């Protein structure tokens, strides 16, 4: 299905739905212009592996409901589609189900007329990948990782595949009014409607790239404000909705090029989006016009990105504040003393002990020693990871309190001057690591993302 529209307008109210609430003023300003689609990404791997591995949300549930309600009410009043990707931060199956239920509840709350809701899951089973590997298909590593091994796979608790535009296009072709997607490429959520309406791949994927973080592409900086992207046969325009924000050449180009390398490779799109060829111009006071991005399809078989997380133990944290100048000067020896006290009981392996030092001449973490520390105070966050909660708690408590008891030369018996140490350490839940950042070859881009349709109301 396609049409002959010469212009398509998409509003994005939030760069990560529910991570912090959408600002309502700019949203309503944008909604009043009657955009063709309401689209928002709801997930990211920036939140770390914990939420995926534990199947929890990184975002407050009420904030997520708030953002979904804003979009659903406006989209249904106007009678245009609403698209959400990477439901519930991770796009796991349970979070898709959670969002579908929220939409049902909101429809009942607002007594909405019947509408069609499409949804798809993104989780991938270990068995599916084991079968691929038995067929001799390598699960290729990204960002310097080796190809996936059976051992790594078995250490993984949950896997999601990253969907491209295909399930969104199919859902729209099926007549969906609302789409709730599992884990998805950020830009695919916005590119899909444009591609369905026969706009070029180059401009459609650029539209997705510039809209995915909402007002991050505007100045002055202000998150969680709405922007509208407009695609034509010749260009993309992006307009800030907040009265005090503007989309400028500098803000839009800077946002589009923040990726670590170019061309930006979009695995789930099956090609390369080269943004180094873009031209930017100020269209009006609040709008930047972009021309010239180039999308080049990859000719080999479709590859879908996989994200996997595995639990490695339980975690506790402790916090210490250090003001004594002599202790600050010798902080590396103080940390080593604390480590040694843990080693004396638990040895050198089977746990993790990490010291994050804030104020060490503006640096943080387990870094190279600084010759001269100018800060008058250090904040030390101690993280202990171990197989059991009891062990993690003791390791963290020992590592934190021993900062207070470190035996430094030239200290003449004075106690209590070195540090303020928390009386207790705090449980921080399970500790997870990324076990998978890979791509899998598939015969059909819809292979992992079957679309389901239900009627609401």
UniProtKB/TrEMBL annotation:
Pfam families attached to this UniProt entry: AtuA
Domain Acyclic terpene utilisation N-terminal stretches: 67-416
Domain of life from the UniProt record: Bacteria
Name used for this protein in its record: DUF1446 domain-containing protein
Protein source organism: Metallumcola ferriviriculae
